[in-house]
């Protein structure tokens, strides 16, 4: 009996230990403070906010990468790094991963997105079959036989020959079944695409117009174990700048100011080089033994001046529709487990959705037919956001409509204007206005946690996306049906503002709408609207 108890207890410990190792992005780690919050907390003493546009443009063969200056007080306080990518038709944003999680919003266009999650199976299969040329197979066979004959011990040679035969047999089976890879999916305007740190993603524009996206990195996230700088690690390509140009820029930075040097170093970390460039040819040839020297050189990006957005030639990807993707996922589960079951790691990560569209009026969380709508994507409707602690909100305001005032309880937010123009006011903790100006398309305004913000659309309306560094960011409106004033007793409001209870009641119940308010109308405007409706 005691032996059974000891065995059961040991098994429990093993399960708990494995679960902790298999879930590195588990939300339980959010009890840890975000990296850098304690070290850079003093940088949140913000006196003035700025609606900014990209400060640097990096051109590639088939697109442009635009980077915001993230050395401003509000960006460093929030730990945000903002990048906009423009991919021309036929362009391919090369595979890369980052040391910090990020969230991407597709502003314009359509394309194909690929995601590579470490440890997940290749559940997608292309429809085309391929075979290696006979000459290449014969060359590999002769090379393999030559290597085998050079071995000193006969037993090792025999074992190696058997291994090569199994490898060629497996290669033949794979070639007859076509190419297999991890999931790919269609993206379009309004999609939100998250990514944990270290997960590889790539994007192909197979449409007729430019594919434009805005990406927000969270450098203070617990998944970033480095410093406050965001680094992108590319698996292919090379910067268009030559080594001589980089050496010249490095000398210029040494002669320039510290701020300019820091900005250039941070931007260089975002778009620097292919990580395979640093490995020696002999190592790569030993690892990728079936490729020639020319391919090894291309792996290392030697003499590649295309940048990190390249023109893809004859790239045709079969992207499954949503129902086909579910079917493919089910087939993969049955292939792995026989009964359709998968292990905990695959259930936690491999089968999660990597996109959610926030531009559908039918899925609005808040809707006012005379003012606008709000669509929210968080960990409730896109579970992967729970692991990276990010979320997004898309807001559409009609002509002269108003949003707010409101504040974020538990997150910083970056407002990126996608259409129209309008006026924004932000008030900080000292009761002073830290921003009061118009914003327009292409600008970003960072609003720190707790700062109250109100937005009013112009004549053409106003649309923006808010990217936030919490997977379930909560806002608290000051006016409206769900506001904080609505929840306070009338007598408390009357004493707080030194007004009559009648005025306090009007203050509390003046707006029956939720967050999005229709514009004020004079009597004449109401009459004109009533006449036009009739």
Automatic annotation (TrEMBL):
Pfam families for this protein: Cupin_1
Keywords on record: Disulfide bond, Seed storage protein, Signal, Storage protein
Region described as Disordered: spans on this chain: 124-182, 237-268, 322-342
Signal peptide: 1-20
GO MF annotation: an example: nutrient reservoir activity
Family matches, as Gene3D superfamilies: Jelly Rolls
Span of domain Cupin type-1: 49-297, 356-505
Family that this chain belongs to: Belongs to the 11S seed storage protein (globulins) family.
Name of the protein: 13S globulin
Gene designation per UniProt: Glb3D
């Amino acid at each position: 009996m005691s032996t059974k108890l000891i065995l059961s207890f040991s098994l429990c410990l093993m399960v708990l230990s494995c679960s902790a190792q298999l879930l590195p992005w588990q939300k339980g780690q959010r009890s840890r403070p975000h990296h850098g919050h304690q070290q850079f907390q003093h940088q949140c003493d913000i006196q003035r906010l700025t609606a900014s546009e990209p400060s640097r443009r990096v051109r590639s063969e088939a697109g442009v990468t635009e980077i915001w200056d993230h050395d401003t007080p509000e960006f460093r306080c929030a730990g945000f790094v903002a990048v906009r990518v423009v991919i021309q038709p036929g362009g391919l944003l090369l595979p890369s991963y980052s040391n910090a999680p990020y969230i991407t919003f597709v502003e314009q266009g359509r394309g194909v997105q690929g995601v590579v999650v470490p440890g997940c199976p290749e559940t997608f299969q292309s429809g085309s079959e391929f075979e290696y040329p006979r000459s290449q197979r014969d060359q590999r066979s002769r090379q393999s036989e030559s290597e085998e004959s050079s071995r000193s011990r006969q037993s090792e040679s025999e074992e190696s020959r058997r291994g090569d035969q199994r490898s060629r047999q497996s290669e033949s089976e794979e070639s007859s079944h076509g190419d297999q890879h991890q999931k790919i999916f269609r993206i379009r305007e309004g999609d939100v695409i998250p990514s944990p740190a270290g997960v590889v993603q790539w994007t192909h524009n197979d449409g007729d117009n430019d594919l434009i996206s805005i990406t927000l990195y969270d450098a203070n996230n617990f998944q970033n174990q480095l410093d406050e700088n965001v680094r992108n690690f590319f698996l292919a390509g090379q910067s268009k700048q030559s080594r001589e140009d980089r050496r010249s820029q490095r000398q210029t930075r040494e002669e320039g100011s510290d701020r300019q040097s820091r900005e250039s170093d941070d931007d260089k970390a975002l778009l620097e080089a292919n990580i395979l460039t640093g490995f020696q040819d002999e190592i790569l040839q030993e690892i990728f033994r079936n490729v020639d020297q020319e391919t090894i050189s291309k792996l290392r990006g030697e003499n590649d001046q295309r940048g990190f957005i390249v023109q893809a030639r004859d790239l045709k990807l079969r992207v499954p529709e949503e129902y086909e993707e579910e079917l493919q996922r089910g087939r993969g589960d049955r292939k792995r487990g026989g009964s359709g079951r998968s292990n905990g790691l695959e259930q936690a990560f491999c089968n999660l959705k990597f996109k959610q569209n926030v531009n559908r009026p039918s899925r609005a969380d808040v809707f006012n037919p005379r003012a606008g709508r709000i669509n929210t994507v968080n960990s409730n409707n896109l579970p992967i956001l729970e692991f990276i602690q990010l979320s997004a909100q898309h807001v559409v305001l009609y002509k002269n409509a108003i949003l707010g005032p409101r504040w974020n309880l538990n997150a910083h937010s970056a407002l990126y204007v996608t259409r129209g123009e309008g006026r924004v006011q932000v008030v900080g903790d000292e009761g002073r206005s830290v921003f009061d100006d118009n914003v327009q398309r292409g600008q970003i305004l960072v609003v720190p946690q707790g700062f109250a913000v109100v937005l009013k659309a112009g004549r053409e309306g106003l649309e923006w996306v808010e990217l936030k560094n919490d997977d379930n960011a909560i806002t608290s409106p000051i006016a409206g049906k769900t506001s904080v004033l609505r929840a306070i007793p009338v007598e408390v409001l009357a004493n707080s503002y030194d007004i009559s209870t009648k005025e306090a009641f009007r203050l509390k119940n003046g707006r029956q709408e939720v967050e999005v308010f229709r514009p004020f109308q004079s009597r004449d405007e109401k009459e004109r609207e009533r006449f036009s409706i009739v």
